[in-house]
Amino acid sequence: MRKYALITGASGGIGHAMAKKLAETGYSLYLHYHQNAQAIRELLDELSIYEGEFIPIQADLSTPDGYKKLSSNIFTLDSIIHNSGISHYGLFVDTDRETVENLTMIHLTSPIMLTKELLPKLIRQQSGSILFITSIWGQTGASCEVIYSAVKGAQISLVKSLSKELALNGIRVNGVAPGAVNTTMLGHFTNEELDMIKAEIPMGRLAEPEDIANSVSFLLSEKASYITGQILSVNGGWYM
Asked: pLDDT of 198-216, one tens digit each?
């Protein structure tokens, strides 16, 4: 029987790579996006070589009711991948309330409410997987990314607690914590700054989106059937 997964933020670099990897392994996909309809159209073209159903859904998860629009378009479901996210770089003392509320809504409130809305579908079948794309900064914290680190740390705590609550329902909850990934989220860094980051990473390079997608594919698979409540660090040895 074909499995269905929801990927939030499917129009971004990591979301795109995850969609291709999961389609390759036989998944049908709900592909959430907010504004980048062109990226979704390009992704759908790339997925056309695979057998499966690929359904784009537009919703703004920075708004209080965005998760309802998304959940109302989802029917059969086996896995939820919370990947939507934005970053914010700047001094903590310069951070305004709007930025704090926006980061909290996108990274924490909407994923929590979306999971709560969709969870009965997984409980009914007594199986499923929930996965958060969190961050190295949720594990160790980052200067000038304090609020981002805070909400990513909250995601990690959510993984650990929710996994315990859902284990007897056959639902696994895990996270992947990337380090620096070669996507547009690093676009505000200069080449010199990126070289400095690479020099700090023991493997000497940024992660590629495919590195994250491969980890996600593993955690959703039967090969990880006894793994829950875990955060898989995919960071080239940058933080252990």
From this structure: 999 999 999 999 999 999 9
What are the phi and psi torsion angles at 57 (to 5°)? -135, 120
Q: What is the pLDDT of residues 28-37, one digit of tens each?
A: 999 999 999 9
- CATH 3.60.110.10 holds for 4-234: no
- What's the distance, CA 176 to chain centroid? 8
Q: Helix/strand/coil (H, E, C) string of 146-186?
A: HHHHHHHHHHHHHHHHHHHHHHHHCEEEEEEEECCECCHHH
The CA-CA-CA angle for residues 21, 156, 137, to 5°, reads: 85
Overall pTM surpassing 0.85 (yes/no):
yes
In angstroms, the CA 228 to CA 225 distance is 8
CB 52 within 8 A of CB 5: no
Measured between alpha carbons, how far is 37 from 33 in angstroms, rounded to an integer?
A: 7
**Residue 4 bears catalytic tag:** no
Rounded-to-10 torsion of CA 85, 91, 96, 97? 60
Structure tokens, 18: 């995850």
Catalytically annotated residue among 67, 89, 148, 226: 148
How does pLDDT run across 58-72, given as a tens digit for each residue? 999 999 999 999 999
